[in-house]
Specification:
Length: about 230
């Protein structure tokens, strides 16, 4: 089933095109090496990753600030290993992690192929909740910035996905309209429900195979998206 009358395609960035998990692991390894932190990186990540997801959900819901997210996820993860650092060290760890994050720029398998396939026939855009200072660097360093006409960042708009205001802003600056737009993202709550609350059609890149409603158009690989657009 092909989706028709699509002119503008909006992508999430992290976990959809940019391989956040792989790049984040490498950033943490560099941070651990710098500070001589003697924890197995994979044991640490098994604790950190669910904590990070919880904090990002709170961040989307405006229940924690950017600083509280950055500090809290590290403090809570290290506490599971009975390790504590002064807040100044936590802040330095956080700053280093953010600066190391875009140094490695692995993309999700099939990302470049999909963008190359779509670019000649569609206007492509980014809508991201990621931090302003690293998202544009990620796009540039991973050599995919040239595919996108606009980049909408939650810090610039003042609200985060799934708030409909960020989607309205992205539509407005892109010259698109709801009827000719499509949202592609991995997060059911932020990307899919956010877009569909305005009537924007969507495809969920459900590579983590979460249980989501069967009526949602979903794929498990980026290459599958070619079957629908």
């Amino acid at each position: 089933m092909k989706l028709t009358k699509i002119d503008h395609i909006f992508f999430d960035l992290d976990h959809t095109l940019w391989d956040f998990d792989k790049n984040s692991t490498l950033a943490f390894q560099k941070m651990f090496d710098k500070f001589n932190i003697g924890i197995d990186i994979y044991q640490f990540l098994s604790v950190y990753q669910p904590i990070n997801l919880q904090y990002w959900k709170l961040y989307r819901e405006e229940k924690v600030t950017k600083q509280e997210l950055r500090r809290g996820r590290l403090i809570k993860a290290f506490s599971a290993f009975n390790i504590s650092f002064p807040i100044q060290v936590i802040d330095q760890l956080s700053e280093d992690y953010i600066s190391f994050l875009p140094l490695n720029n692995y993309l999700i398998e099939g990302a470049v192929e999909l963008l190359t396939y779509l670019h000649p026939n569609y206007h492509l855009h980014i809508i991201t909740n990621g931090f302003r200072e690293v998202q544009n660097t990620k796009l540039s360093n991973s050599n995919i910035a040239q595919y996108f006409k606009t980049v909408t960042n939650s810090e610039d708009v003042g609200v985060k996905k799934p708030n409909p205001i960020i989607f309205e802003h992205a539509i407005a600056i892109s010259g698109a309209n709801i009827g000719n737009s499509l949202m592609i993202g991995d997060n059911y709550e932020a990307d899919i429900l956010g877009a569909e609350s305005l009537g924007i059609r969507s495809i969920c890149f459900n590579y983590h195979r979460e249980q989501i409603p069967q009526n949602i158009l979903q794929v498990s690989s980026l290459n599958e998206i070619k079957n629908y657009i």
